[in-house]
Amino acid sequence: MAPIGLTDVAITDFVVNQRHGVIGLVDVISPKTLPSCYIQLPEKRVTTERLIMEAPTTGKGALSAPGPENLGLNLCCGGDLRGRCDCATLGFIQIVNHGVSVDEQNELRAAGRGFFDLPTEEKKRYWEGSSVSETAWYMTSFNPYKEAKLEWRDSQV
Question: Coiled-coil region(s) at which residues (predicted)?
Answer without folding.
Answer: none
